[in-house]
Amino acid sequence: xxxxxxxxxxxxxxxxxxxxxxxxxxxxxxxxxxxxxxxxxxxxxxxxxxxxxxxxxxxxxxxxxxxxxxxxxxxxxxxxxxxxxxxxxxxxxxxxxxxxxxxxxxxxxxxxxxxxxxxxxxxxxxxxxxxxxxxxxxxxxxxxxxxxxxxxxxxxxxxxxxxxxxxxxxxxxxxxxxxxxxxxxxxxxxxxxxxxxxxxxxxxxxxxxxxxxxxxxxxxxxxxxxxxxxxxxx
Length: 234
Description:
single chain; alpha/beta; Rossmann fold; eight-stranded mixed sheet; two-stranded antiparallel sheet; 8 helices; 34% helix; globular
């Protein structure tokens, strides 16, 4: 999972009523990485039950113990099977293999892909375009029985993991082809203080959202910041 490394902004305007998500178990595949650990910590702190998934249960259990109450660790298959919503925060180079192996366990689940396919050279970060169009569309192709959405691309892992920061004031762009699924993901994002979920289109538009992370990395390097996004007039 490649992530930008959000600046404070005015508080979000009132949002529409969201579905209840408090009783849902959230799995985080790639939960031992920086982005996954940060999301697991923030969601658990907001009261969600969270399962961290990793290739080995021992590694996941060790990371969960560090994060504290509300988080437990398991191997990827158990994490996928026992969760209601599964966030995919694995490295891009392991994205396809991870999801291909979990097709059965993820059937019927809401899958939230937040992977950003990026390359790096001497000039910095640049976007890659998968054959399917985006990481999220690749996930949808590999998981035809899952309800695939895309979200959480533009969050700073540094801010997510900083326990001295109580609010992360930023918008979370949510994409997907099923309204009920995107509504649930928006509600999940809004469990984290300061965050607002904003519907940003169908899954076919995920590439430009994933690619924008390359621009945020450039912003962060130039201004020594942890830049995020705010959508105005919504």
